[in-house]
Amino acid sequence: MKRKLGRLVLYVLIVTGAVVFTIPLVWMLATAVKPIDQAMSSPPRWLPYQYVMEVDGQTVSVGVDEMPEGAVPDTPITVGVAYQWMLKIDGEPVPVRPRVESVGAQLDMAVDVAVHYHMQVQDGGVWQPVRLADNDVVPVVEQSVDVVMIDGDGYMSRKAVDPSQLRKTYDQTTKDMEASFGETETLSVPVAALSKTLVPWDDRKVLAHVLIEQRAATVGDLSEKIAFRWRNFGDAIEAMKMFPTYLKNTLVLCVLTVIGTVCSSTLVAYGFSRIDWPGRDRVFLLVMATMMIPFPVVMVPLFTLFRDLGWIGTLRPLWVPTFFAGAFNVFLLRQFFRTIPRDLSEAAKIDGCSELRVFWQIILPLAKPAITVVALFQFMGTWNDFLGPLIYLTDQDDFTLALGLQFFQSKSGGTQWHYLMAASSLVVLPVIVLFFLAQRTFIEGISMSGLKG
Amino acid sequence: MGGALTRGERQNLLKGVGFISPWIIGFAVFGLYPLCASLYYSFCDYDVLNKPAYVGTLNYQEMVGDSVFWKALYNTFYFAVFSIPLGLFMALMIAIMLNQSVRGRSVFRTAYFLPSIVPLIGVSMIWMWLFNGDYSLVNFVLSRIGLTGPGWLTDEAWVKPTLILSGVWQVGGTIVIFLAALQDVPRSLYESAEIDGANAPVRLWHITVPMISPAIYFNLVMGIIGALQEFVRPFVMLGGTGPNRSALFYAVNLYQNAFDYLNMGYACAMAWVLFVIIVLLTWGATAVSRKHVYYGGDG
After folding, report:
1. A409 — contact with chain B (CB < 8 Å)?
2. CATH architecture label of B66-298
3. Three-state SS for B184?
4. Residue B37 per-residue DSSP state
5. Given an 8 Å threshold on Cβ–Cβ distance, is B271 in contact with A294?
6. What's CA B91's distance to the chain center, in Å?
7. What's the CA dihedral at A204, A205, A210, A215 to 10 degrees?
8. How crowded is the C-beta side of A259, counted as CA atoms within 13 Å?
């Protein structure tokens, strides 16, 4: 009986603890896929949701300001319905904005509608927005047309292009509309040519020319649907502006530091474990002692040193030192190298193998597990490093993800939590995925570092 | 010295030094030189732009009267005094639980370990969101059980406890080391103790703790070194200082002196004081451990 009670208490404790330890990560992911109003809502909810309703025979998500308290299915509620007027131009539906609001009175009546479009020129495989240099000239085939375009540096330039390289595209999204050189034209079309299309409530600020109308409904008409807002990730990347650059820098640093650490630490560890030379163990004690030096002690002179070398504002201070063997990695590898039987290398040496060949052909292949640990830890260390980049990197072009995330946070303040959590997820998730891929290596590495010391 | 060596020994010396030469160069350039330079700068007035000017022990004297320095030192000690024992205790308890034969042990192990590999910048962001004053999950849960959550990151009295809690979330590495140590404790010890009628707390205190004392010692020293250099979380979560400097940590203060105020000499002096404190505490922990740590056969 007492035993059973003990087991029960154990399970309750272990499960509660595990849940508490997991909640912060889950909460980060949950916030990352919510619209901002749900991220900030009280009471908080785990999963993002939408209200859907049947409107004109179609099921579509609608906007609900606030659920009235104590609502019953009959409680009246006003919902927002988002829609577009679409017009088929050359077979493609294009969103338009009617000049007058009262569409639909008489089907044979003509209405004026505005369409937004861009002229584009194919330039190196991509379509670039341009403006016709002379608006009156309609492009005629087999004649060159002058266009104005913006080059990579943001300057406008005039250029003659072949009309076959020129096209007219109608803007579908607000982002299309915000691109440079947008034009509006007014078309007069019969009312019957327009069709009203409902759009999801969450797309109302994304798609072009979305109109909103209020509809009277009852709470019973609405149903809740779980809807993850994956768009947050793309939007967060866009809001961070230089995310791809940060990612590239981080990956470049990870690759360089892993190469540097593995190359240098294995060599040095070999020197400390497989060759008997006078004074070796005393020097190794010195190596171990350097682990005690707190980084702040060497921080200032390292900064001045790198400044004198002209390395501040480059990635070099963050990877060059890894090519000179860190004490911790040397220690880990030395422990492992020592377990490899002497006879193996002695036999090879008697056969005339040089020390380097023994290192390369016998020790390294056998030490793969330990090398994996060192590489993994270095990768994690570089990915997570914050202080180093903070001190040495001055230019946003060189920022790493960790620094870029902090920069984004301090810029956006405490407002865009859904984007901040989406961006954080993008920094955190690769590490977690890596853990699941290399779980054993992680655990072995940590136990190795802790126990044999 | 060279004369006393045989030909083979000399050859080995050359080879050995050849292999460790990356470390020798690295240590000279990125270790020994900065160490000496920093000691020298600590006796200088140095702002990076001008050459360091020797001022004797002025930086150290200034430190004595610098209330911000003392505040930062106090905050850091406060953090260390609570976070290290709490972290060790939690990690040990969790490790003991995980060491029992429970169903789904690997799932639990993953759940407890995972937070420890989350990048510190991510931890800071998550914690700022979880403990946000107005919309936080934590305060909502507290309100549900009838408590009013404090402004975790805005109330002077609460910022350090918040940081301590976020540190406890990351004890995964410590747990793994304890687990490895626990697995080496012979079962027979517990069995005979149980026959003698020792209950669980007694067994924990008289068998487990002594048997894994090397791991406790290791984690303690790592904890001291880590806690005294705590930087990223206070820097990111509280913008470096926190309300009324309540979260101004030693390493953050040092960073600010060096790179915000360009008092590089003063920063170096602070770094050396920190170094001495770490060495003294580690030495203290080692001295205590000599008496109490049990290393296999040589007790």
Report:
1. yes
2. Orthogonal Bundle (1.10)
3. coil
4. H
5. yes
6. 14
7. 40
8. 9
- Which one of A36-50, A113-127, B269-283 scores highest in mean pLDDT? B269-283
Å from A351 to nearest chain B CA?
Answer: 17
Chosen for mutation from B7, B113, B129, B222 (greatest number of chain A CBs closer than 10 Å) is B129
Q: Check CB contact of B297 with chain A, cutoff 8 Å.
A: no
pLDDT digits (tens, 9 = 90+) for B210-237: 999 989 999 999 999 999 999 999 999 9
Sign of dihedral through CA atoms B274, B280, B286, B291? negative
List C-alpha distances in Å: A207 to A175, A200, A316.
8, 10, 44
Q: Where in chain B is the domain with CATH 1.10.3720.10?
A: 66-298
B279: distance to nearest CA of chain A, Å? 8
- pLDDT (mean) for A316-322: 96
C-alpha pair distances (Å), A58 with each of A62, A92, A171: 12, 22, 25
Task: For residue A421, give the nearest of A238, A236, A246 by alpha carbon.
Answer: A236
| Mean pLDDT for the stretch of residues A123-145 | 70
Which pLDDT band holds residue A376 (cuts at 50, 70, 90)? Answer: very high
Question: How far apart are the CA of A238 and the nearest CA of chain B, in angstroms?
Answer: 19
As a whole number of angstroms, the distance between CA A7 and CA A270 comes to 49
Is B49's Cβ below 8 Å from some Cβ in A?
Answer: no
Task: Write down the pLDDT at residue B2.
Answer: 45
Return the residue in B17, B126, B224 with the most chain A beta carbons within 10 A, the one to mutate for interface testing.
B126
Among the partner-chain residues B22, B108, B239, the one whose CB lies closest to the CB of A268 is B22
Q: Which residues of A touch B177 (CB under 8 A)?
A: 446-447, 450-451
Cα B241 → chain centroid: 20
- The answer, yes or no, to whether residue A104 has pLDDT greater than 70, is no
Residue B282 forms contact with A (CB below 8 Å): yes
Confidence of residue A452 (pLDDT cuts 50, 70, 90): very low
User: What is the band of B33 on the pLDDT scale with cuts at 50, 70, 90?
Assistant: very high
Query: From the CA of A411, how many Å to the nearest CA of chain B?
Result: 12
- Report the residue from A276, A294, A451 with minimal CB separation from B180: A451
**pLDDT tens, position by position, A209-266:** 898 888 888 888 888 889 899 999 999 999 898 999 999 999 999 999 999 999 999 9
CB contact under 8 A, A442 and B278: no
Portion 151-190 of B in contact with A at CB < 8 A: 169, 173, 176-177, 179-181
Task: Average the pLDDT over each of A150-159, B139-148, B260-269, B279-288 and give the range with the smallest value.
Answer: A150-159
- Please give the domain boundaries of chain A with CATH numbers for all domains: 76-216 (no CATH), 242-412 (1.10.3720.10)
Report CB contact under 8 Å: B270, A293.
Answer: no
